[in-house]
Fold 3-hydroxyacyl-CoA dehydrogenase NAD-binding domain-containing protein.
Amino acid sequence: MTSPIRTERHGEILVIVSDNQPVNALSAAVRQGLEAAIKEGVADASIEAMVIRCDGRTFFAGADITEFTKPPVDPLLPQVVDMIEASDKPVVAAIHGTALGGGCEVALGCHYRIAVPSAKLGTPEVKLGLLPGAGGTQRLPRVAGIKLALEMTAKGDPIPAKRAHEAGLVDRLAGEGSLEAEAIAFAREVKAARPIPRASEKPVADDPAAVETFKRENGRRFRGFDAPAANIACIEKAASGASFADGITFERQEFMRLMMGVQSAAQRHIFFAERQASKIDDVPAETSLREIKRVGVIGAGTMGGGISMNFLSAGIPVTIVEMQQDALDRGTGTMRKNYEATAAKGRMTATQVEAAMGALTPTLNFDDLGECDLIIEAVYENMDVKKDIFTRLDKIAKPGAILASNTSYLDIDEIAAVTSRPQDVVGMHFFSPANVMKLLEVVRGAKTAGDVLATVMALAKKIRKVAVVAGVTYGFIGNRMLIPRQTEATKLLLEGATPEQIDRVHVAFGMPMGPFQMADLAGVDIGWHRDPTRIENIRDALAAENRWGQKTKAGFYDYDDKRTPSNSARVAEIIDEFRKREGVTPREISDEEIVARTLYTMVNEGALILEEGKAQRASDIDVVWIYGYGWPVYRGGPMFWAQTEGLAKVVAGLEAHGFPVAKSLKDAVGAGGRLK
Ligand code: T1G
């Protein structure tokens, strides 16, 4: 098999080129090729300096994550980086695309770095539950300073080449089209310069106090995660004056500890699961896509406005329809306010705000949707209303237009059946706030065409959403799994638990909030029949007393003007009244019982969803819960977590509380295997 590494001679300069598509991951073959090429350059007296560059869209984007579960193959990346740095001839890294993780560490092992302005450099290992394990934690603070090293390693966000240049991480910026030529010229310029600058020999220059400041400013952000603290500890080691060698020893020890840990396994699982989710098993990857030049959105409420912003921000014009002028004005006004708030945070320019709003066409004329290639309805969650909308759409939408419903629960097949084009009908379930939440459930009807699905999945990536295909079932994937969680949480209240206990268990687990905190945020009155005299459950009782959640400053909790929650004596009374009415004597409920009845039941529902073919794979279910509900990524999603919890333990917990266990869950335990 040909090596992904080749060398090209330019006089006295040896250019080492990697061609390992799609992202030049530093696979074993790449590492072996790099080692051989550096040795060639060092041994050849006619070579006075070297350049390392990559073909394709990016410089090395990191170690090859697919190799992490396989036996290590020499040379390991730290050895390759050390060898580059030890070269007695200067080596220049020519960077384009994203020099990430091990890629950034290879660049740090080089003596000089030149990059095009569009390039980015980063150490995102922390997002995989890891840390830069090829010397990055010790070279980065020596080259770019402690503060930037902390930011880059503990948060994991890449920085643009310009900022890297200002920080000294990049020595020069090249023209976008002349990177190789300028890198060769740079190598020529420094070929005789001595001493050769080596990152590992530089002192850590700036203020070690930066570590404490960083910890203080970011403590909350890293709650529950192991890797950020390990990254900080490695930088702290470098800042403490420890020798480079001691720092490397510490880094290696921490890297291996994280690599063997459950959190990194979970975060690596989600990295691949997110990418796998974009693949539709029975729709060929090369399916031609429908062209989406203009999107129509029906409804300018919270969802319609948020949905519209996704397309406008991606440069896709939107026609937004409402029935009343004041509703239309309110909706577009909210969109502008949201954009201006983003601009105020420096994440958008005023020009970009105007460009986005300028691509919006508000109208009261439903027929204006006739020119749209994709039309998404985001109206009241009622089947009759949806059917009326799709009946009208069927008459005015252009042939081939994709007709989508943003319904959270309802049957897409029933909606499609009122049209003459069920093959063009699909669900696009955005999560509120639609312009923020990354998850998009793409609901395929029985007749939804393959190219419609492929088009929507590709479009999801363009609007920076993580899309997951769901089948038609009540609540699709995420909300269907929410049902047993909410049902059991309410039953537990009756049996003796309190809202704060149940929420505490969920927050301690790593959820952003518990079931009752979420109910207060979303609205206790959602789905309420609006009859205050009809009180069939605890939610009815709260809703009847206008305890609709944060918006009425009272729900399962009481809220002050700053929406700070406090336990509610009135809610405790209501619960007691219900216990008496139902003849239930409250008992002590353990946290373990809460986990079994609210989380194991979710896993069970996920297994049923898989059995019924309403999700393509177990990892898709994990992606839904990570990106739609804030399930802690370091636990890998419900189905992955169930494996780490132990499927036998989950099944035993379900059986102990009398739940019928999904067949696939039982079979998986029997086979000692995994949920697929
Ligand atoms: N290893 C293996 N495969 C990778 C990969 C990697 N590092 N990065 C991407 N892929 C695959 C990906 O699965 C997908 O495959 C295809 O490439 C395109 O990716 C020792 C230990 C580079 C910004 O964390 O952030 O270095 O689905 O769809 O949207 O210290 O990929 O097509 O079969 O994401 O254009 C550190 C991870 C590793 C970077 C491109 N590096 N990658 O985004 O394409 S750990 C990272 C990304 C490490 C060292 C440590 C993104 C991207 P398929 P894609 P994209």
In short: Residues 295-474 form a domain with the Rossmann fold fold (CATH 3.40.50.720).
